[in-house]
Amino acid sequence: MNQSEVIPQGPASPAVIQTASGFFFTCLFLFLLVMVITWGSIYLFPAADSGTHHLVAELSGEGSGATQEFTVGPMWEFRWEHSGHLKTIRWMEGEKEVDLFMEMPGKPIRNQGGVNYERPGTYRFLVEGEGKWTIRVYQF
User: Fold this and answer.
1) Range of 73's domain?
2) With 0-12 CB in 10 A as exposed, 13-18 as middle and 19+ as buried, what is 97?
3) What is the pLDDT of residues 19-41, one digit of tens each?
4) Looking at per-residue confidence, does 8 or 121 come out higher?
5) Is residue 116 located within the same domain as residue 62?
6) Are residues 70 and 109 in the same domain?
7) Scanning 27, 38, 48, 61, which has the fewest C-beta atoms within 10 Å of its C-beta?
8) pTM for the full predicted model
């Protein structure tokens, strides 16, 4: 074979998806397939509750006020929900303020959230705000 000779090649393999709408519908089908598999796996294989994470206290109120005391060991968290406007959530040990979670200018306290804490003790919350709220305390 000399260098000037051109070797003919067959046609390139034909495209499976030949139009923009075909590409769109193929992507849509694959997306929906992934969603069905994901949601199906959530219901078929639910996550098991951890034996080391349990509810210690559920505290509810409306407006500003203090909660009952609760006792926790090391590594605990609290989660809140509210349907109004909270300004601060303070956690107290006796009469001493341990820490607080407060709104910032232009950044109110979300309707739900949580904070992890490490120190064991007997605490209570002082909530300042308006509307109904619930605080759940969990021990790890």
Assistant:
1) 54-139
2) exposed
3) 888 888 888 999 999 988 887 77
4) 121
5) yes
6) yes
7) 48
8) 0.62
